[in-house]
Amino acid sequence: MVDRFDEHFFLIAKETGGIEGLLNSLFSFLLRRTDYYYECDPGDKMGFPPGVALNMLGNIFKKYQDEHYKIHKKKSAQEYKEKLEIYQRKQKEQQEKQKEQEEQKKERQLQQQQQKQSEQSECQKQQDVKIKQEEKNDSFTNKQKIDPYINTYNGGQTEKYSWSQSGNDVVVTMKVPEGSNKKNIKVIITASTLTVKVKDNVVVDGKLYDKVKCDESIWSIEENLLTITLEKGQENIWKTVIQGDQEIDATKVENTKPLEDFDSETQGAIRKIMYDQQRKQQGLPTTEEEQQLEILKKAWDAEGSPFKGQPFDPSKFNLSNGQIQF
Fold first, then answer.
1. Helix (H/G/I), strand (E/B), else coil: 293
2. Is 234 within 8 Å of 210 (Cβ atoms)?
3. Engineered SS bond to 52: which of 11, 48, 151, 214, CB 3.0-4.6 Å?
């Protein structure tokens, strides 16, 4: 059978890099070890008459080519040329489209960067104007007295600053080194970020808990105490000043304003916090953990699950810290 040498041919093709390597090996073998290429004279007992070896090769090639055409339709060179032109045209269109998308993406990124720089520049200009106005106001610099008690009402303390809040604003206070003044302190307030530099050292730099009105936010320094007043973008309760810093328990925030007076989004957030806190105290799962349990319950009996057919057992999972652990 012709296929009994297939494994040998596969090995040769693999070792020589494919079909061309296989053919090179075969014809090299015929040259080195046989008389295939030898053109004989009449009466010779080796080789073939001129042209016979080549015809033999052509006949064998055509035999198996005909077998191929019984399964696959024969293609003309003109048909291939037309398909190649269509393929190359589509490739070119795809490359041009991809190039256009990349250029549009770069343009959007540049616009976003310019917008951010413009926003920071505008806020900085507003801050500079306010600083100059405050420097001209002698009553502010000479008569203003800082209460030695740092207020943390409805707020908290971190290693770098203390803070308090009302429904409309957040007041951040921090001690600065002796000799600090408005010339060597830089406070940058944008709608969503706060940066504080003291003598070229970055003290605070991060994303705010929520948006603020940077044009209505101010800062001042007196007796080595820096005070920053951030006007909230909307009336709500903050759990921290900088995202990632220690958060307070929002359920303990004192506020004489009835819950119904807050907007619906804030009411929902407060109710969710209170609900989750109550669930934790009762040893029950929070809203997020309940959602995770619903997902696990669906996956428990899904195809391919090792638990399929068994009663759902939530004790096999640990949902602490908002993560699922087996």
1. helix
2. yes
3. 48
Q: Which residues are within 8 A (CB) of 207 and not within 5 positions of it... i.e. 6 or more apart?
A: 192, 193, 242, 243
Mean pLDDT of 100-115: 92
Q: Which residues contact 168 (CB under 8 A, 6 or more apart)?
A: 231, 232, 235
Q: Are 126 and 115 in contact (CB under 8 A)?
A: no
SS3 304: coil
**Which pairs count as long-range contacts for 111-119, CB under 8 Å and 24+ apart, including other chains?**
119/190, 119/191
Q: Are 158 and 218 in contact (CB under 8 A)?
A: no
Secondary structure element (H or E) that encloses residue 275, with its range? helix 264-281
271/30: higher pLDDT: 30
**What is the dihedral angle through the alpha carbons of 111, 116, 122, 128, rounded to the nearest 10 degrees?**
-150
Burial category of 108 from C-beta neighbours within 10 Å (exposed 0-12, middle 13-18, buried 19 and up): exposed
pLDDT grade for 125, boundaries at 50, 70 and 90? confident
A 10 A CB-CB count for 311 gives 7
Query: How far out from the chain centre does Cα 150 lie?
Result: 40
* Residue 222 bridge partners (DSSP): 225
List beta partners, residue 218.
229
Q: What percent of the chain has pLDDT over 90?
A: 50
- Conformational region of residue 302, where left means phi above 0, alpha means psi within -120 to 50, and beta covers everything else: beta
What three-state secondary structure class fits 318?
strand
Take residue 115 and report the two structure tokens written for it: 């917008």
Q: Are strands 193-198 and 156-157 parallel, antiparallel or unpaired?
A: unpaired
DSSP, collapsed to helix, strand or coil, labels residue 245 as coil
319 pLDDT tier (thresholds 50, 70, 90):
low
Higher pLDDT, 97 or 323: 97
Span 204-211, average pLDDT: 95
Question: 254 or 154, which is more confident?
Answer: 154
Higher-scoring residue by pLDDT: 321, 114:
114
